[in-house]
Amino acid sequence: MALRTLTTTSRILPSATYTVTQKHLNPATCATPIDLADSQRGILDSALRVDQAGEIAANYIYKGQIAVLGRDKHVGPLIQDMWEQEKKHLIVMDRLQVQHNVRPTILTEVAKVAGFGLGAVTAMMGKEAAMACTEAVETVIGEHYDDQLKDLESFPSKHPSLSLLKGVIREFRDDELEHLDIAVDNFSQRAPAHALLSSVVGGGCKIAIELCKRI
């Protein structure tokens, strides 16, 4: 099985502003825009609510996969690396949710259970099925992040938190698309009933996104 590891970079990433100790208050990380129209505030709130829930689910998907495939010398370390990246994503999304005063979804516990179940079940179906799960999820998430960026670009506010948020979303989108590439490189498309599995997982993700936007 091909083993592709996550790439590393020396450049300072937007998310780093939320994961390092700051010596002064930065409005980009400590304040939220007050000049948004109600419709724009609704878009911002639903985006961060969905993103936080998505990162919770992603963490539990990888937790479920590790529970089954953690000892596999080929995909175990690969899954663990992707999980570590998702852990960082969740830390940042939690802080964004507090910064922008966004109510978390009431489906948080459902996201945990469903995520773990999806990860564990696909892992029990085999390595390729676990990778197919990642491929399907990250395809939907990449498209979702692109849609969010389009929405945020239409906001007239020049508040520094919005520029930083767009940078974080671009960064996380690229991370998720890298996970997708890793899954394909590791034979996700050889999974039994790949097309059906991708359709079910991807469709479930889209339904979850719409639910978390609202509740």
Order of helices and strands: HHHHHHHH
The CATH class label is Mainly Alpha
Q: What is the C-alpha radius of gyration, as a whole number of Å?
A: 17 Å
What is the CATH T-level topology?
Ferritin
The largest pleated sheet is described as:
none
General form: globular
What are the low-pLDDT stretches, counting only 5+ consecutive residues below 50? none
Could you say which structural class the secondary elements and strand pairing correspond to? mainly alpha
Mean pLDDT: 91
Helices, by number, come to 8
Total domain modules: 1
Give the quaternary arrangement of the chains. single chain
Give the name of the CATH architecture: Up-down Bundle
Number of strands: 0
Keywords: Iron, Membrane, Metal-binding, Mitochondrion, Mitochondrion inner membrane, Monooxygenase, Oxidoreductase, Ubiquinone biosynthesis
Subunit structure: Component of a multi-subunit COQ enzyme complex, composed of at least COQ3, COQ4, COQ5, COQ6, COQ7 and COQ9.
Pathway: Cofactor biosynthesis; ubiquinone biosynthesis
Family: Belongs to the COQ7 family.
Quick recap:
This protein has 215 residues and is mainly α. It has helices at 16-19, 27-30, 38-69, 75-99, 108-124, 127-153, 160-185, 194-214.
